[in-house]
Sequence to fold (428 residues):
Amino acid sequence: MARNDGIDRTFARNQDLPTLDDVAKVQEHNEREKDSYSNQDIDTTQTHRNIHFKTPTDSYAAMFDQMISDGVISTRGLKADAIKYGELLFDVNSAYFDNHGGYEYAKQFFADAYQAAVKIVGGEQYILSAVMHADERNRAMSEALGRDVYHYHLHVVYVPVVEKQILWSKRCKDKSLVGTVKETIMQVSRSKKWESKVALDEQGNPLMTAKGKKVLRPSYSVLQDDFFNYMKAAGYTDVERGERGSTEEHLTVTQFKVAQEQQRLEAVTVQIQQSEQALAANNATVQKQKQELAALRKENKLRNDAAVTIQDIEAMGKKMLTGNISLTPAECDTLKRYAANGVAAKAEISRLKDKLASAEKTASIWKKRYEKLHERFEELKKEVQPYLDAVKLAPERVRAFLSAILARGKETQEHKHPAHRHGQDMEL
Fold:
């Protein structure tokens, strides 16, 4: 799964195929046995470019049964519900192949990846099918680059087996053989095939937990390491291993593809949002242009109407031999109407001019009054500015000071006019 961080990473995934129905569905997908697919990114016109590094000779299930008959594998002691099939998916982000030449480079890369799969599985005889898909379009990159970009990847369907030694039992007549190897079989066993391995330190010694237990490396982490190390040894030194310790190591093939689709969806969502923003801006521009166009059309219509009217007036009348102009009754009525309208319009224009002149005169008077008031206001503001500053600095002290002055002034007024105050008291 590409992270859009400019780093190309190898990815290896393992998926169990528990039932024959699962096996059939994988076969339909890998071998392109269907006429149509729900995955719209599958371009069937490009299916001929898919490459088999191992072509199945029959259905996967039939090949499995044949392997048992030929003694290639053994299901001895296998439970009825045991997992007998697995699928490996090997992948690198689409940009890696696109930057290295595309299809031809991908063919060589996955030819080498197939050899890694042979080693991981334990032998080519245990592989049922290995096919590189070259017909699944990377929609996000295609839309971004304006050309078709395909997501190349390798599917390997195999039978998980481990080597098992069968020993002679105590019932053997030759007692000297008891406990010795009777035969070696390749036993079908998913659990033993993907058994976690002990983690080792730099000296090759087992890593131990604080409680003295051995540290185990998850089997899928081992798979990631094995694939990466093989591809690096094959000369692909410009890729990095899929992130260690991430949950990606435990994704199934289906989950991995869902995650890829989610990432593609997020990229497309961003593009849609950007497109919507651009569309909104364009719509606003279009609306503005429509309004401007409507205004121009209205203005143009008025001009055209006026031009037609003047043209009609100039065309009226027929010049007589005497030099006089002869008008039809209709032309005469039209001229009278235009003349009356013109006189009325002239009078209205004159009235509006007088009204405008009066309004301008009134406005000039109020402007002068305002300027005088504003000038007086500025003078008063300048005079009381020290008081305003004092109020900001010490409001309580200023109020107390003013209250004392006002009280003192009141007492002074009472002393100056005692008779007047007495008269007022008498009247009350």
